[in-house]
Amino acid sequence: MRADLGLIGLGVMGRNLSLNLAHHGFTVAVYDRSSDRVGQLLQEPADGRAEIVGTGSLPELVAALKRPRKILLLIPAGPGVDQVIAALLSYLEPGDIVIDGGNSHYKETNRRGRMLEAMGLSYLGVGISGGAEGALRGPSLMVGGSRRAWELTRDLFMKIAARVEATPCCAYVGPEGAGHFVKMVHNGIEYGDMQLIGEVYLLLRELLGFSAAETGAVFREWNNGELGSYLLEISADILNKKDAATGNPIVEVIADRADQKGTGQWAAQAAFELGVSVPTINAAVGARFLSALKEERIKASEELTWVAPRYEGDPAELLPAARAALYAARICTYAQGFALLKAAAAAYRWELDGGTIAQLWRGGCIIRAKLLTGVKEAFAGEPELPNLLMAPYFKKEIEAAQSGWRRIVGLAAQQGIPVPAISSALAYFDSYRRSFLPANLVQAQRDYFGAHGYERLDRPGTFHTDWQTKEETVHSKPLQR
């Protein structure tokens, strides 16, 4: 019997997704450059699942598949994807489907899709979130690319995806690289939320002297309420673990240098290109860069000093404020992510639906959180919502959290404790809600040194002023391009 799907790449994600597919009744043919990985997978107990067929070459893999052939690549993003596609082309025929399930940049997915469509092949770029556990038990799947290919793979993807209230966390989000764009924004929000949680951990450690276990207990309690999320849940678990070698909390023997694979940077870059403000995502990416400068930071800690006033606050007062700050800043981070999705939909003519994307992220993925129910309902009530902050539910939630949020940002500044994500989220909120911003002076500065022109409030058009005149009274003249 021929296989329903071919899968290339048996790293942790590929291996677990193969088992997920087989447990849902799909016969999978697999290939990896390492024959050992293929052999190890084939030794997994059958447990009533469908067959997994091991193959030793790409021609053998393609020959094992039903027509039209469907081949899923689970390999690292970059040139390797192009190399595997090029190697496959000799064995494929018009109508076959290639699926990239890695973290490819959406522009690369656009390019590959156009190339393969010109050859009569169909291409999907699928954002997969949930890590190794999600791949095995049900990931969140953000599918983009050929609609024909989606129709031919829909049943397969829907069955293996995570479910929330019986609804699969899987959908076709749009053409071209839309699936990978949505996954990139997911990862940008993930960066922001991880940094927010880290900053609250630092505040409780520095201001209240909380141990790792004490902070973990606080996070565990918060996770039962409005802050319920996968990331807060695992943070509580991490803070409760002890190192076997030293007996100390494991988090205290982990170097304070955070790596990154680049998807957060991609989200920030895309926001710059599309003219969208995502300061909390930017702050999270920047915080990781700064964390890498460990030796410099050690030296700076000895030379760049600040004697903060002694904090003598009551934990009973600080904890609710920290909770409010985390919640409000998280809302703003999601608002920034959905604003980026909205801008991409307009720029690329993708019909990205905010409610559908919120549903995709409610289960299986890394940023799954209780507040996504509110996001889904907000877009259901107003599909063209300009910003999540304008949704009635989130306006009410932010209003309730503002006092504690502002207190935390002010206290952190006074004590010299860095909270770049929490404070950038507050600045985003305050900037968004202001009817007046100092951009008028900025635009005048641009016109002064570069003759870039400016708009007036009282008449249409673009104007320029001769700022070098000695006269105090100046004129706005139509800008000559």
UniProtKB/TrEMBL annotation:
This is 6-phosphogluconate dehydrogenase, decarboxylating. Residues 461-481 are annotated as: Disordered. Catalyzes the oxidative decarboxylation of 6-phosphogluconate to ribulose 5-phosphate and CO(2), with concomitant reduction of NADP to NADPH. The lineage of its organism: Bacteria, Bacillati, Bacillota, Capillibacterium. The gene is gndA. Homodimer. Substrate binds at N103, S129, G130, G131, H186, N187, Y191, K261, R288, R446, H452. Residues 461-475 have a biased composition (Basic and acidic residues). The keyword Oxidoreductase applies. It comes from Capillibacterium thermochitinicola. The active site is at K183 (proton acceptor), E190 (proton donor).
